[in-house]
Each structure stands twice: as structure tokens, then as C-alpha cells.
Amino acid sequence: MSEFQGKSLRELLPGMQLAVFEITWFTFPWIHSIWIKQNNGQIQFFVEVASAPSEDEQENCRRLLKEMLDVAMPYTDHTVEYGPMGSQVDGYHELMSDRLFKAIASKVAPWRLEVGR
Q1: Which of 19, 76, 97, 114 is 20 to 30 A from 108 via CA?
Q2: CA–CA distance, 66 with 72 (Å, rounded to integer)
Q3: pTM of structure
Q4: 3-state secondary structure of 104
């Protein structure tokens, strides 16, 4: 995996997961999971959904992911792909899922477990 300013995507992942936990995950209940990988200097997101979100929902999600990426890895190109789970997650790291949400919430925001997403 290539590195960005001395830090690999794997090293940046916990901070990015917390950002998604705080904002993106709660905002878009239609997301089942979010996956991320670095490929040829570009960040690729794969957003697993049960059904296709509207163009506005996709754009709002894309904007929030870009804002998070701009803080973690400024000036890095990225793509966001939406679809059902499949072989697309090969080489990806789990950015967020219900399992990860529960693990983070139990450590930093237990009240979110009662409220849910």
C-alpha cells in the first residue's frame, strides 16, 4: 500500500472511521457498509446499499466523504461507487458497518447504542 505524507491509509483509518461514525453513518440510514482502498494514489470508496439512493442522496454522501478525506489526505483524488455487496470489496478496508458502529459506540458514545444510527 502506498503512503501519504508518511502515513498509510491503514494508519489513518481509525480517525476516518470516527468521522464517519459521527456524521455520515447517522445521516444516511440506507447505507449498509462503507469500504475504502487506495489504488494508484487514488482513494476508492465502495458504499454498500440495499437499493439505489437518489442522486441528491448520493451527492450529499459523496460530499461528506470528500470533506472527511480532505482532512485526512488533502489533495487526494477519489471515487465513490454505490451498489449491493459483492466481490467489489476485494482489497478494501472496512470504513463503517453496523458491527463497527457498535464497537465504536461502546467505547466513545454508549448512548448511541440506545438511539441507534
Answers
A1: 76
A2: 10
A3: 0.88
A4: helix
Cα–Cα distance for residue pair 57/38, rounded to 1 Å? 24
Q: Which residue has the cell 502506498?
A: 2
For residue range 50-94, list pLDDT tens digits in order. 888 999 999 999 999 999 999 999 989 999 999 987 656 678 999
What the block records as the C-alpha cell of 114 is 440506545
Q: Count CB atoms within 10 A of the CB of residue 5.
A: 7
Distance separating alpha carbons of residues 63 and 113, to the nearest angstrom: 26
Q: Quote the CA–CA distance of 3 and 88 in Å, as a whole number.
A: 22
How many angstroms separate the Cα of 47 from the Cα of each of 25, 40, 89, 113? Answer: 11, 20, 10, 22
Q: How far apart are CA 43 and CA 78, in angstroms?
A: 4
Read off the C-alpha cell for 93.
Answer: 478496508
